[in-house]
Design a protein that fits this description.
2 copies of one chain form a homodimer. The first copy, chain A, has 14 helices and 15 strands. Chain A is of the alpha/beta class. The first copy, chain A, folds into 2 domains: 242 residues, Aspartate Aminotransferase, domain 2, CATH 3.40.640; 122 residues, Aspartate Aminotransferase, domain 1 (Alpha-Beta Complex). In chain A, the strands form 4 sheets. Chain A has a 7-stranded mixed sheet with strand order 2-10-9-8-5-3-4, with helices on both faces. In chain A, helix 5 runs parallel beside helix 6 and helix 12 packs across helix 13. The longest helix of chain A is centred in the C-terminal third of the chain and has 21 residues. Chain A is globular. Chain A starts with 8 loop residues before the first strand and ends in a 9-residue tail after the last helix. The interface between A and B is large, with 57 and 57 residues.
Chain lengths: 394, 394
């Protein structure tokens, strides 16, 4: 029997698909981490990270997942027995709370609810009620629900009360804007495997002087994730890493950052906006419910509340096993209830077309009342209305 | 002018050169970490790690450098204010001491001296004098000096006093024997980028039940390096990782471990022994001094005490810049005093020939009295005396 579904499509919010040039550079012979050839890659990538973080701060790189970089923020900014405020709205926001507890901070946990945004007014009120809080942890794009928080306003609220703010932008960085220096965010945390179009294995944190100053007076910062160790190494000329860097991952990251630089960060944001708009138009045309707030800023992941008539866990499973299209379902309390279409990183128009197409076929197969092509058509219209660049990029 | 030195040779003890099949698998499209295709790779690699660690314990994998895996041992086994004994003989042993201090343990630091072995009798005596010590940290192969410690006897000494022992085998694992279960080592720590012939970015720790039991009663274990989180994930069927695993690095590791399995662990050890013997014969023939104890177990790195007549820092620099052969010089207090020839991982006879040849040419160029070919000839004799396998491996 003929199989037209032999190709595999990765449509998840991390690891995200890699551009071929990024994958291929990892097949090159490994470099000694103190060789001039690697130091050139490392210095270049560190410089390019500053452009993507939109900061003058040193962007610290760790061989770790994004959670390791989150731990670095908690290890360097919290103190045992002192209060720390976490403002969360999903699974990854809750990770901040777990981290603060693991480090013995006195946790104040504001849970906005899965699918809700964190309201800056709530943060303002809570900080007013708890004047001892010196550090706030929150999330830019909550991958578990698709919600994108208003980090500019959350930062302003924290600063009104003299608190520092650390933001998990693991899936959001380079997908939606978070101009660190312009907004005054004290620490932005990210990872390589989302919109940075690189393999998982590198975590980043970009503390400003205030955050580094707080770290310097911490009674204990751990060792591997101690910011002062890494900042001292990276500020050397040439830059050095206190521990063996993940050489291949840095080589890949440098190629990916070069592609972002070439496309232009503003164009990258616009592309994500367009992909998000097309995905939302498809969902609306299919008369499916979007999960979470119906705003136009959720351009990292589109979460769909699945119809009650289908078993939600069957949707990603069928899409993957029958059609070769891997999307993510719900996590934690949303397991079986939502499907998540990612558009963060190396995604283009026909990735949305493919994913919506497979979703339509899957829902039809699972017995839902879906007219084939309706969602795809709505996405196509969004793309056509946006116009086509005159010359395709080389 | 003709340049016969256009090829680059990586002869360092980490990152070590990768077999082409290991590099190439990293160029494959990235996999979703919860996809059946990745889970198969992950489960297979986890199983193969047990063979290399020679243990029934779960070998925990972290997206980190080897130092991150060392931190996991300190985070899970030490307690603030309680004593921890570090027995060191070089730069990486001292890292254990720094880690214990970063975690607030009461540090007892036995420094055997750079280039010396840790004497099991000293450990025995120290533990007798300090009956409160419940955990010992030491090193298998001290990469900074080439010394390989007698971990079997050090383990026996620790156990005689009821202490657990954690061993840094980052550069030693799969180069020299450390049969964990047979010797009863409580925790072996390693990294991907040494004799495991994989890119840097994965750290490992293999706690036995006693070590996991101690971790379970720890007041605090951190978060990212908390053994109980990772062991719970890996023991699931299928195994899962609490944080996004470094997918490409695991794909590479799985290929490399398959190659070790095919060669056979005993043959791998014998190959390292032979490479070490050849390197030592070359050094002796060149009438250079070996740095460190003159035993036959130092089969990871051969350290050479450079003649006073040359500036030691010039040796690795000249070898690299003029001949394309990258070796490491001395670190820390040995900077400029020694040269280190690595033979851990994907190294064969002609890597030794190439390295010794470049060393001879370099020393001659730097004005030392060296007869060209004498070191190479001695290495060749060792290899020929050992015989040639009848059929080359496929």
């Amino acid at each position: 029997m003929a199989n037209p579904y032999l190709k595999q499509y990765l449509m998840t919010a991390g690891p995200t698909p890699l551009p071929p040039a990024v994958s291929q550079v990892m097949a090159e012979p490994i470099l000694y981490h103190r060789s001039p050839a690697f130091i050139e890659v490392y210095a270049r990538a560190l410089g390019r990270l500053k452009l993507v973080f939109q900061t003058q701060n040193e962007v610290l790189g760790f061989a770790s997942s994004g959670s390791g970089a989150m731990e670095s923020a908690v290890a360097n900014l919290t103190r045992p027995g002192e209060p720390a405020l976490v403002a969360s709205c999903g699974k990854f926001g809750e990770r901040w709370a777990e981290l603060c507890q693991a480090y013995g901070a006195e946790l104040l946990h504001h849970e906005a609810g899965w699918g809700e945004k964190v309201d800056p007014a709530d943060l303002d009120r809570l900080l007013g009620e708890n004047p001892g809080v010196e550090v706030v942890f929150t999330t830019l794009a909550e991958t578990s629900t698709g919600v994108v928080n208003d980090v500019r306003e959350l930062t302003a609220a924290a600063h009104r009360h003299g608190a520092l703010i650390a933001v998990d932008a693991i899936s959001g960085l380079a997908a939606v804007p978070i101009p660190q220096d312009e907004w005054g965010v004290d620490v932005v945390v990210s990872g390589s495997q989302k919109a940075l179009m690189s393999p998982p294995g590198l975590g980043f944190a970009s503390p400003n002087e205030a955050a580094l100053g707080r770290a310097a007076t911490a009674p204990r910062r751990g060792y591997y994730f101690d910011w002062l160790k890494t900042v001292a190494g990276q500020r050397k000329d040439p830059p050095d890493s206190p521990f063996t860097p993940a050489v291949s991952a840095w080589m890949a990251l440098n190629v990916a950052l070069g592609m972002i630089e070439e496309e232009g960060l503003e164009q990258v944001f616009e592309r994500h906006q367009l992909l998000g708009r097309a995905a939302r138009a498809a969902v609306a045309a299919l008369e499916l419910d979007r999960f979470g707030p119906h705003d136009d800023g959720a351009n990292v992941v589109t979460a769909i509340a699945l119809p009650d008539t289908v078993d939600g866990s069957d949707v990603p499973k069928t899409m993957r096993d029958r059609y070769g299209v891997t999307i993510a379902g719900g996590q934690g309390q949303l397991k079986g209830k939502i499907a998540r279409i990612a558009h963060c990183g190396y995604f283009g128009a026909f990735d949305i077309v493919t994913t919506i197409s497979a979703l339509e076929m899957t829902l039809r197969e699972l017995g839902a009342d879906v007219e084939l092509g309706v969602g795809v058509g709505a996405a196509q219209r969004v793309f056509l209305d946006a116009g086509v660049p005159v010359a395709a990029p080389a």
